[in-house]
Amino acid sequence: MVELYPLRFIPIYKEKLWGGQKLQQILSKKISDTKKYGESWEISAVENNVSIIENGFLAGNNLQEVIEVYMGDLVGEGVYDKFGIEFPLLIKFIDANEYLSIQVHPDDKTARKKHHANGKNEMWYIVQAEENAKVISGFNKKVTKNEFGNHLNKKTLPDILNYIPVLDKDALFIPAGRIHTIGRGVLLAEIQQTSDITYRIHDWDRTDEDGNRRELHNDLALEVLETEAVNDFKIDYVEKKNEKVSLTENPYFQVNVLEIDQVVDMDYAMQDSFVIYMNIEGEVRLEYGDKTETFVTGETILVPASLDIFRLVPMKKTRLLEIYIPKKKNTRR
């Protein structure tokens, strides 16, 4: 079998009421029209949105097809044992030109029972935040479900939520069950379980171009909602030059940030997982054997598990998010 290589995928762009133009302007996405694109799905195995490989001899094949053939060589033996041909992560860039809907996601137990799908824990890394930009995460006080219902009826739900100012490089973990949304002026990278289950709670009375409001899912949200006050907003970390720094490690994914201005050698022989790099800023050459793959700001690349020794050679100062499945803490299906 021909050896695997770093894989690029064709981004899947999602037009949104709240989208803007930063995917093109800051991340240099090749979008030719002026529609409001709010999301770029960089790597996806969501049904009807499975990513297509863009480069090399596997170009034109989708992600699941390649996992079927290469199995553990692509994703890692332990990852394949637990997830099979379903790729476990959904990787996105999100551009919020307006507030997204206020929403919550179910955990695995609820999602599997009601939707035959995974739950949704996610992490945000702020790529660029405008002045006074905010996100919402959790309630600002303990709320009973009756109080929650009353605020919904009175349309005062925003009054009891945490508004968190964000800056470039901030990171937040959003567990399943936590009410949240992204505010206007925020461009971020989102790492999450493979799931597209969202319970929309409040949509700011917005209508689409036909005057229709989007569906709300308040009864479903009530079943999964975390009602305690939240104060663990941002991930506390200190960036270090040319060293990976952990942002979050949980049963679903490990995310590190890596700022480099010199050559860094990587050895994943003991990791038993694919590795994803999202280039947040800069340009870097990935060298493996006598071959190379260069990727720039806004590009995402998947390094197969079988390609476990390589080096990163920055062309200029580069900031990457590094994502993989923790070896000993995978969630069983």
Write the layout of secondary structure elements.
Elements: E1 12-20, H1 22-25, E2 37-43, E3 45-46, E4 49-50, H2 63-70, H3 72-75, H4 77-83, E5 89-96, E6 102-104, H5 108-115, E7 122-129, E8 134-139, H6 145-154, E9 161-165, E10 171-174, E11 180-182, E12 186-193, E13 199-202, H7 218-224, E14 244-249, E15 254-260, E16 264-267, E17 275-281, E18 283-288, E19 291-296, E20 300-303, E21 309-314, E22 318-324
Written description of the protein model:
The chain is built from 7 helices and 22 strands. With 333 residues, it is mainly beta. The chain has a 6-stranded antiparallel beta sheet, with no helix packed on it. A 5-stranded antiparallel beta sheet has the order 14-15-22-17-20, with no helix packed on it. Strands 16-21-18-19 form a 4-stranded antiparallel beta sheet, with no helix packed on it. It is globular and about 65 Å long. The two termini are 29 Å apart. The C terminus is likely disordered.
Whole-number tally of structural domains? 2
Low-confidence blocks of residues: 329-333
What's the gyration radius in Å? 20 Å
What fold name stands as the CATH topology of the largest domain? Jelly Rolls
How many strands in all?
22
